[in-house]
Amino acid sequence: MSIGDRVDVALRPIATVLCFLGAAIASAAEVEVFDLPRLMQLLAATPAAEVSFTEKKFSSLLSEPVVSSGKLLYRRPDSVEKIIETPRKESYRFERDVLVLTRAGAEKRIPLSSQPLLSAFAASLRGLLGGDLALLRNHYQLSLQGDEQSWRLDMTPVDEEIGRYVQRITASGRAGRIGQIEVGESSGDRSVLQVR
């Protein structure tokens, strides 16, 4: 065996390892990065939704949380409706720039421009359900943790006036499905909405 043949035999294992390493690097590069644009893409893939929810509102003034349940509906492009079935029937529907409140058969229309807090909350729901990153960024600083199988998005209001009422909204879920939305108020009260 010549010196050249011996060098060739000695280098074959190294070449094989380098080939496998190159394939592994190429494969890892093909894996899609999970970031805010990817999360929004997954959320935006749902054209409409109708899900059941249970919401618990915790207050320092109450010894037990107030529990309500009902349905949450989303229709493109920007209609979000929260229908409460228990403990009493009422609904809140965000329609363009108006909140339509229905209680005891009576309907009340409230312009969102007159209620900055409602406007920001509507933006959080519409932005999440519609996968609208620009809308969310208009109202919140965003921080995403986790991966596609288990993510958490923290939204902190950028507007000082909203920040006087809402400390943070945190949404969590899996892929394009939201499992929970928690609203932490500046007063220390909070609400946790769980989607089934």
Essential attributes:
196 residues, alpha+beta, outer membrane lipoprotein receptor (LolB), chain A, 11-stranded antiparallel beta sheet, 11 strands
Draw up the topology in text:
Layout: H1 3-30, H2 36-44, E1 48-58, E2 66-75, E3 79-86, E4 90-95, E5 98-103, E6 106-111, H3 116-130, H4 133-139, E7 140-147, E8 150-157, H5 160-163, E9 166-174, E10 177-185, E11 190-195
Antiparallel strand pairs: 1-2, 1-11, 2-3, 3-4, 4-5, 5-6, 7-8, 8-9, 9-10, 10-11
Helix pairs in contact: 3-4
Structure description:
The chain folds into 2 domains: 1-31; 36-195, Lipoprotein localisation LolA/LolB/LppX (outer membrane lipoprotein receptor (LolB), chain A), CATH 2.50.20. With 196 residues, it is an alpha+beta fold. The chain has helices at 3-30, 36-44, 116-130, 133-139, 160-163, and strands at 48-58, 66-75, 79-86, 90-95, 98-103, 106-111, 140-147, 150-157, 166-174, 177-185, 190-195. α3 (116-130) packs antiparallel against α4. Residues 15-29 have low confidence and may be disordered. The N and C termini lie far apart (71 Å). An 11-stranded antiparallel sheet has the order 6-5-4-3-2-1-11-10-9-8-7. A hairpin with a 2-residue loop joins β9 (166-174) and β10.
